[in-house]
Amino acid sequence: MTDTPDQQQRLLLAAYDAQLREAAEMASTTSYDRAGPLWRGKFGGRGFVSYRSLDGLDGPALDELIAQTVEHYRADPGITAFEWKTRGHDAPPDLAARLIAQGFQAQEQETVMVGEAAKLAQDVSLPAGVTVGRIDTLPDASTALIRAAEATGKVFGETLSVEEFLRPLRHNPGQVEIWAAQTRQETICVGRLELIPGSDFAGLWGGGTLPQWRGQGVYRALTAARARAALARGVRSLHSDCTAFSRPILERSGLLPITTTTPYIWTR
Questions:
Q1: pTM
Q2: pLDDT digits (tens, 9 = 90+) for 149-192
Q3: Among 14, 18, 30, 207, which residue's Cα sits nearest to residue 110?
């Protein structure tokens, strides 16, 4: 008997919670420690908080844990900001309000999509003059990666240093691939494939496309190329935190939305 979509989503959500949180989210950090249910990582000038469950903490006890976490990062003068990553299915339901009360700011909500890599590994036509390929293994990789970092910063409207852009690649050697769609003149779409050792998954990250190139199949082609690369490395399942732009593309390809995620940012 075939599982219903609701049953598939519940199974995928259980696998996501078990395999893609806590230690899996510390892979790119330079250091991390534990505090109760929390995993607290640091990388460069930023921090990141992960957990699978808050172990039933609520009320004043949860407020105290949040305050202790703020003080943990505040005590490190090298940290300028940190992210507390929440999921829509987590308890307690008033966690967001408690974070905001202690100085966090909510970022854009994204949808967590999970599914089979084979469903994304499709043939996609590209606009004339556009090519898609892995760039971190090219003979002139340094030039290509600088262009990719610049393009990613433009897409997401932020200043992104090359060092920050390359952090996942350097801290997870052999587990991260950087792919790009390019013309002869510019890089127009960039995305990473990140394998997660000890899990059934790889992650699709980035994938932002310059505005003038959207709606022409570039993101779909970059996603398909990364899905084929995942399959070639023996990975059958993919996950992605996606925006409203990319969700319809991934959903049409067979990935399922299983929850939402909202980053809450504390800034010094």
A1: 0.90
A2: 999 888 887 777 788 888 888 888 899 999 999 999 999 999 99
A3: 207
Q: Do 10 and 4 meet the contact criterion of CB atoms below 8 Å apart?
A: no
Helix or strand run (H / E) with residue 193: strand 187-195
Q: Tell me how far apart the 2 most distant CA atoms of the chain are, in Å.
A: 59
Whether the predicted pLDDT of 53 surpasses 80: yes
What are the structure tokens assigned to 126, written together? 């590209």
Among all chains, which residue has been given the structure tokens 């590209």?
126
3-state SS, residue 199? coil
Q: Measure the CA–CA gap between 227 and 133, rounded to whole angstroms.
A: 12
In which element (H, E) is residue 30 found? Answer: none
Cα three-residue angle 179-181-182, rounded to 5 degrees: 125
Q: Which stretch of DSSP H or E encloses residue 6?
A: helix 5-19
Please list, in sequence order, all residues whose beta carbon lies within 8 angstroms of the beta carbon of residue 251, skipping any fewer than 6 positions away.
113, 257
Q: Which of 6-10, 14-18, 42-46, 155-159 has the lowest mean pLDDT?
A: 155-159
Beta strand 237-242 with 201-209 is parallel
Please say if the pLDDT value at position 2 is more than 80: no
Confidence of residue 51 (pLDDT cuts 50, 70, 90): very high
Backbone angles phi, psi at 225, to 5 degrees: -65, -40
Segment holding 152, helix H or strand E: helix 141-156
